[in-house]
Amino acid sequence: DVKVTQSSRYLVKRTGEKVFLECVQDMDHENMFWYRQDPGLGLRLIYFSYDVKMKEKGDIPEGYSVSREKKERFSLILESASTNQTSMYLCASSLTSGGPRSSYEQYFGPGTRLTVT
Amino acid sequence: KNEVEQSPQNLTAQEGEFITINCSYSVGISALHWLQQHPGGGIVSLFMLSSGKKKHGRLIATINIQEKHSSLHITASHPRDSAVYICAVRSRGSNYKLTFGKGTLLTVNP
């Protein structure tokens, strides 16, 4: 069973604080993703990583950065948290492309509900 | 206009009813995913399909590539089916990027 874990289920931070959200997967997946989910907007991709130290911007990267120093761990960083970054953050992972069809399936973590006050 | 449109946005049913959730998309795709999200956040993949029909227990997913439309059916619905159901498409030529619908909130009353 693939397991994707996130460091916190709930987090409350103050405006201007630096925030780290951590995600760990245990299935040796190459691809890892960070999404945010907001009511009425659905899931939106923030950043994607396809290998260690490799990253690509998603649809809404502004105000975020990421780090992938090890294959199993993908961190989302809010350099200076703002109230409009209050949201549910979801991490996901998948095998790389080129394998069987099931390798495209994304496995999600439980989510971190971040409140910035 | 969102590339992936789901209907209805909200659906309330009585236990035992047959449920249908629809998903329409506007781009060429290589696959379509149906996901389930229970209260609390965790998302689980239900189906990934690129043609035809798949069945898992009481859940059935169909896709019509020519019409750019997919449906998720739940037979003999149960209160534990209450969740948000999300449709997502992987565009042709993309190895990873999913575009998500806004979800359908299903409530099944006993």
Rg of chain B, nearest Å: 13 Å
What distance lies between the first and last C-alpha atoms of chain A, to the nearest angstrom?
A: 37 Å
Tally the helices of chain B: what do you get?
0
Strand composition percent of chain B: over 45%
Sheet with most strands of chain A? 7 strands, mixed
What are the segments of chain A in which pLDDT stays under 50 over at least 5 consecutive residues?
Answer: none
Total strands of chain A:
11
The total of helices of chain A stands at 0
Series of H and E elements of chain B: EEEEEEEEEEE
Inertia-based shape of chain A: globular
The helix/strand series of chain A, from N terminus to C terminus, equals EEEEEEEEEEE
Computed structural class of chain B: mainly beta
The residue-averaged pLDDT of chain A reads 91
Task: Please tally the β strands of chain B and state the result.
Answer: 11
Task: Using the CA coordinates, give the radius of gyration of chain A.
Answer: 14 Å
Written account of the structure:
The complex is a heterodimer of chains A (117) and B (110). In chain A, 0% of the residues lie in helices and 54% in strands. With 117 residues, chain A is an all-beta fold. In chain A, the strands form 2 sheets. In chain A, strands 2, 4, 5, 6, 9, 10 and 11 form a 7-stranded mixed beta sheet that branches. Chain A has a 4-stranded antiparallel beta sheet with strand order 1-3-8-7, with no helix packed on it. In chain A, strand 5 and strand 6 form a beta hairpin. Chain A is globular and about 40 Å long. The model of chain A has no long low-confidence stretch (mean pLDDT 91). Chain B is mainly β and 110 residues long. Chain B is 0% helix and 61% strand. In chain B, strands 2, 4, 5, 9, 10 and 11 form a 6-stranded mixed beta sheet that branches. In chain B, strands 1-3-8-7-6 form a 5-stranded antiparallel beta sheet, with no helix packed on it. In chain B, a hairpin with a 6-residue loop joins strand 9 and strand 10. The termini of chain B are far apart. The interface between A and B is medium-sized, with 29 and 22 residues.
